[in-house]
Amino acid sequence: MIYFDNAATTFNKPKNVIEAVNDCLLNYCANPGRGGHKPALQASRAAYASREALAAFFGIDDPFRVVFTSGATESLNLAIKGVLKEGDHVITTSMEHNSVLRPLSKMKENGVELTICQCAEDGSIDASEIEKEIKPNTKMIVCTHASNLTGTIMPVKAIGGVCRKHDLLFLVDAAQSAGVWDIDIKDMNIDMLAVPGHKSLMGMQGSGILYIGERADVTPLKEGGTGSDSEQIVQPQAIPDKYESGTLNLPGIVSVGAGVSFIREAGTGQIRRHEEALTRKFLEGVRNIKNAVVYGHNSPAIAVVALNLENVSASEFAYLLDYEFDICARAGLHCAPYAHMTIGTLERTALRVSFGYFNTEDEIGKTVDAIYDISKR
Has this prediction a pTM greater than 0.85? Predict the structure, then answer.
């Protein structure tokens, strides 16, 4: 099997991640922060070690500002719904995932003013276009770091500079970039960073983080047991307990810590170069196929390619790759309808292939050959 759906979930996990999760499940999978016995204490130490590793990885000075969540979706909901209030104005782009657009749409129903900046046909946008939309009541700008449809890299550092210039909060969705592209929250002026554990951080599904900077006043989405201030029936105000009610997903947290360790050893530069080489080889191959149409990739991009064949529907394209060639890719709207509208594929949809560190050039060659075979039908 050839797996090219890494933008949804990294399928192949590093050996050290699997070993770390197995060790946790077998030896100390108790509730961190909920007891004084040996397994609970070891669980607490393991959770903090992952928190510390993630903080260092993203240039975060205080590890306690790394809040564990179930994934980027929960992180984005917490950041968006915990900050915006009736009368506020928020700006985002047309290349966002529904994990941004749907919470923002819900807040719009609650009296928040929403502006969606139109991106170019390749998915790119200039920070100055976003700056033009700022109003006196603008509170926050929300932007993806990399499109999950075209792979387009957004000018996050420049947008962060705009936010600081106008004293706005900056929330970045790093679902597709974290682990492959370097992210430094101080250099990029990021106030809140939403990251899943199960994509390029190579951890388990059901894991993620939200970095909450000192400039962001975020109301929790939920209240409950935290293992701290238990004599009080009101939510603790100390971070991260304020946002981490309920039992933490310890195996998931451990997996992300191990994933960061693997990435640091391999090097984000090496990972990125490998994925870029795979993407170049794929693009060179499919652009020689007469009726293949590739979207985006006119600007810096991650290892995600959206394409169509003129004589085959996207869904049939994915079906044939899967059932005839054992190649896993994803057709549809990819939870990003405005992005498809931007590139002109809202009605037709598209096939998306997304490469990871464990994919090979041989797999690229076989896939290009399979696409050529399908294109001739």
Answer: yes
Q: What pLDDT, in 10s, does the model give residues 206-233? A: 999 999 999 999 999 999 988 888 888 8
Q: What is the CATH number of the domain that holds 283?
A: 3.90.1150.10
Each residue's pLDDT tens digit, 101-133: 999 999 999 999 999 999 999 999 999 999 999
Look over the chain and give the mean of its residue pLDDT values, rounded to a whole number. 96
> On the CB side of 284, how many CA atoms lie within 13 Å of its CA?
9
Q: Do the bridges between strand 169-173 and strand 192-196 make them parallel or antiparallel, or are there none, so unpaired?
A: parallel
Q: What are the backbone dihedrals phi and psi of residue 118, each rounded to the nearest 5 degrees, phi first?
A: -75, 125
Q: What is the pLDDT of residues 274-303, one digit of tens each?
A: 999 999 999 999 999 999 999 988 778 999
Measured between alpha carbons, how far is 361 from 364 in angstroms, rounded to an integer? 5
Instruction: Find the helix or strand (DSSP H, E) in which 369 lies.
Output: helix 361-375
Residue with tokens 């050039």: 361
Number of domains in the chain: 2
User: What's the CATH number where 93 sits?
Assistant: 3.40.640.10
Among 243, 266, 289, residue at a domain's last position: 266
> In sequence order, which residues have a C-beta less than 8 Å from that of residue 15 and are 6 or more positions away?
none
Q: In this structure, are 94 and 200 located in the same domain? A: yes
How crowded is residue 119: how many other Cβ atoms within 10 Å of its Cβ? Answer: 23
Residue finishing a domain among 215, 236, 266: 266
